[in-house]
Amino acid sequence: MREQTIGGWLDELASGAPAPGGGAVAAMHAAMAAGLVSMVCELTVGRPKYAEHEPTMREVLALAGERRQAAVELAEADAEAFTAVTAAYRLPKATDEEKAARTAAIQEALVKAADVPLRTAALAGEVLELARRIRPGANVNVLSDVAVAAVSARAAMQAAAVNVAVNRASMTDVVARARLEAELARIGDEVAAAEKFIEELA
Fold first, then answer.
1. Does the first or last residue of the chain, that is N or C, have fewer Cβ atoms within 10 Å of its Cβ?
2. Which residues form the signal peptide (predicted)?
């Protein structure tokens, strides 16, 4: 994916292929949010007016770069996880043994598929925290980009939550379902915090 052009990736997204899909889009929202955080840091570092904030900006710049790369990796992982789910659904089911094996494979694939958007949401929350950290000392000319970074991070969390919920709905393991329900509640709290931060920047 890192070798693709943006246009090429969008063409693939718009095609009839099952992946990339919504989970990859969620991860790319997080990647773009991290990219904007980096941009704000780059446009703040080295300017005398913001010298007292330079240590924070340099630290966040490095962290945002790491989060951006991780988000791209999650976009790739989501496509792989979704492919595994579709492959499980295509397993044979002519006999009772085949039906049992297929059901087990589907449930295992769903758990793994839910894990990727959970990690995406967590990463987006980290990017949001980076945006909060740079807000006080950011170059005033790019404060709107801090806001857009927060909006993109929020979108990543919301989109990730949708994908978690979809996978959870098809699960039969009550323990796994309960765990994901708690995770969805936590993501909801993060989204609410993001919205409050965005309002403060408006």
1. C
2. none
Note if the bond before 20 is cis, omega within 30 degrees: yes
The dihedral over CA atoms of 154, 156, 161, 163, expressed in degrees to the nearest 10, equals 160
CB 177 within 8 A of CB 171: yes
DSSP-H helix ranges across the chain: 6-14, 22-42, 54-89, 96-134, 143-169, 174-201
Q: Report which residue type is found at 8.
A: G
Question: For the chain, which domains are there?
Answer: 19-201 (1.20.120.680)
How much is the average pLDDT of 144-155? 97
Rounded-to-10 torsion of CA 69, 71, 75, 81: 110
What the block records as the tokens of 157 is 């969390």
Place of tokens 């996880």: 81
Rounded mean pLDDT, 162-171: 96
